[in-house]
Amino acid sequence: MAERDSNMPSVPTYAGTVAPYALSKDPSSDGATVLSVTPDSPAYDIGLEPGMRVLTVNGKPLTDMIVWLWETEDVEAEIEVFDPRDNTVASAVIERFPGEEWGVDFDGVVFDGMRTCVNACIFCFMNMLPKESRSTLTIRDDDYRLSFLQGNFVTLTNMKDPEVEDAIDKMLSPMNVSLHAITPECRRKLIGRNAPRGIEVLERFLEAGIEIHAQIVLCPGINDGDELLATLEYVEAHPGITSLAIVPLGFTKHQKRFTTSYSDDVEASRAVVKMLEPFQQRAREERGCTVFQLADEFYIDAHLPVPPAETYDGFPQFYDGIGMLRSFLDEVESVRAVRSLEVARVSERLGESSRRVLVISGEAAQGTFGAFCSMFDAGVIDVCTIKNEYFGGNVNVTGLICACDLLGQLPADLTDIELLIPDVMFNYDGLTLDGLARDEVTAELEQRGAIVHFATPAPNHLLDALV
Length: 467
Prior knowledge:
Elements: E1 32-37, H1 42-45, E2 53-57, E3 60-61, H2 65-71, E4 76-83, E5 88-95, E6 104-106, H3 144-150, H4 161-170, E7 175-178, H5 184-191, H6 195-208, E8 212-218, H7 225-236, E9 241-248, H8 266-286, E10 292-294, H9 296-301, H10 324-338, H11 340-353, E11 356-362, H12 366-373, E12 381-386, H13 403-409, E13 417-422, H14 438-447, E14 451-455, H15 459-466
Parallel strand pairs: 7-8, 8-9, 9-10, 11-12, 11-13, 13-14
Antiparallel strand pairs: 1-2, 1-6, 2-3, 2-4, 4-5
């Protein structure tokens, strides 16, 4: 699941909107609000302007981007538009040349309200947030449309038959599905009483030929061991499931159900790695791809090297934490080979100025960012690990670092320090998970004497920020 205010990136699989959030800001209104219009585009030519609302396309209510994509597939479409300046509704035919973009962006991808979760998942991260968390962080979405449009994982448990039939008719493929377990008893324990519906819809999708990327949140003592084995065998028997991501349970201190996970148990992590190996081997032999993928945390927790890039099948679940570590390490080697002169110049600049760079990192990524720092002269760039006290539990990823921990754990005197802060700490509105704006964080750090850089946490982007 991915909440509207998520600080984690999503994977758009469509074209046509630049709105940062999945939800329209005005889902109570009919149609889709126009966010922007490209000059001299088909939308511009018929007089569309920001603030107007497109109500229907070819007579179909415009409820989401799927309707727009399907109804505007050809070179012309008839639309109804509401103009709030005079409260009028007008019809127009919008036309384009083959391959031309329509030139209109809407304020989201779902315009009629989000389908929310009907489950009671025991591992739901939104239920483990601090009480003072802003309300947008606790929205539990489970909307199949966002699975297709943005790569969100959904359980399928709240889909009605007409929605299932519509998804099959439109062949909304691929879909990202939270599987978690296969036996009814375990699924009910994990998800709740609606769990059977998820498998029913999943199998209808598979029968129809819709490709599935599946996910398991692995909870020690619940869906591991024999239960995990049964789920792996189910996936192996259904080739329509082209990738399976297994991610470890994450928990915060703001709950009482969990006190341990794989991050505390090297042997348990290694056992999971070992269990997957024969399934991965058979998949490579029979399907030509690995299919069964473990989150990077398992290799970190097991103290094992991450697999080579070719075993990740093109990284179909990259933003589920599958292969990020391998991608980063390989990019470090590419930067070392291709941009060695720039690396040397940064080392020289820092050495001559007596400045030092601290790369901010969560505990899980300390070694990964260390590989980036190793390219430079000794002592000029180091990793500064921030412990997540705000969430507590086993939360240790960089994207969930909060401003209170960053500011609380950095020294009061940052003179001659350049801070390289991964921008995944901030959402699209420039806020951290505990609600501080990027400008506020920057101002506080600059008051302490620091020079502040923000960058996407990938070696080339990190180097760009320093260059």
